Amino acid sequence: MAPGGMLLFNTDDGYLEAIIRGFRAGILTSADYANLCQCETLEDFRMQLTATDYGNFLQNEPSPLATTTIQEHARKKLVDEFRAISTQATEPLATFLDYLTYPYMIDNLILLITGTFKEKDISELIDKCHPLGLFDSMASLCIATTPEELYREIVVDTPLAPYFAECVSLDDLTALNIEIIRNTLYKAYLEDFHQYCQKLGGATAELMGLLLQFEADRRAINITMHSFGTSLSKLERESLYCSFGELYPEGIMRLARADDRSSVASIIEPYGTYRRLWSAAMDNPDKNLEDAFFEYEVRFSK
After folding, report:
1. Which residues contact 283 (CB under 8 A, 6 or more apart)?
2. Do residues 267 and 290 lie in contact, with contact meaning Cβ atoms separated by under 8 Å?
3. Which residues, at least 6 apart from 25, have a Cβ–Cβ distance to it below 8 Å?
4. 105 and 98 in contact (C-beta within 8 Å)?
5. Is residue 246 helix, strand or coil?
């Protein structure tokens, strides 16, 4: 922090930090989760939440309670709290928070593109989009009736326009290429976000660097595993890998040449974290590799 930074911290960031500390204090504890595990019905679940910051969470919902209702309210709470932070944020935090919404935007736009191939009404699809991935100009996308029209709207009037313009051409926009487009956009996003965090320096560069490296490596491993038995060539597969991460460059080059699951296992063997996650998934019939990745990410982010 620059000289005098601590003295002036409260001017721009004190109020926002207090909000975030309040949200963090309201996160369910290990004891709360232990109590929830004892619930036998959704009504028990609702009762257990009354002693937490989620006390008003479901109080106005009629019985019987549905799991979809719980999911909707949980998502709304997340979105409301995120927006409470983002509306108060100044730079560079404001841009950092924008980056956190980009994965949701990517998934939303892929949903809309897929819908246009199936000749669905975009205005109806927007209602199914994740709220964190909505943006001000999204309503303008409703005028598009074909993938070509939608593409032109995206590259002109959305926050993801630079990624689309740089990585996805109109010729790429086919039903068969949807997942390739998704992974191409994620690659561009992760590399851009990683570069931004490194420019910020300090603890942000260190901690986000580790998180984004893990995400880049996880995607590389998953892309490789899911490409087996498909028409995706090794060259196309390699183009979807990020140019950073613990696996980069040697592990990435070897993944690009992998032919089967055993090849992947041998490639990640020298990398302790991924070797342990692979073993955890292989040794547990009730857990797959993505489950192991998710559990590690949650523990790491804590």
Report:
1. none
2. no
3. 53
4. no
5. coil
| Domain boundaries defined on the chain | 89-200, 204-302
Asked if the peptide bond before residue 64 counts as cis, ω within 30 degrees of 0, the response is yes
The residue type of 140 is S
pTM for this predicted structure = 0.91
Record the tokens describing residue 105, joined without a space.
Answer: 């935007």
User: Which of 72, 93, 81, 79 minimizes the C-alpha distance to 53?
Assistant: 81
Of 236, 235, 232, 225, which Cα lies nearest the Cα of 277?
A: 225
pLDDT, one tens digit per residue, over 59-79 is 889 999 999 999 999 999 999
Distance CA 289, CA 266 (A): 15
The residue ranking higher by pLDDT, 256 or 4, is 256
Q: How many residues are listed for the chain in this entry? A: 302
Q: Give percent of the chain with pLDDT exceeding 90.
A: 69
63-69: long-range pairs with CB below 8 Å, 24+: 66/42, 67/42
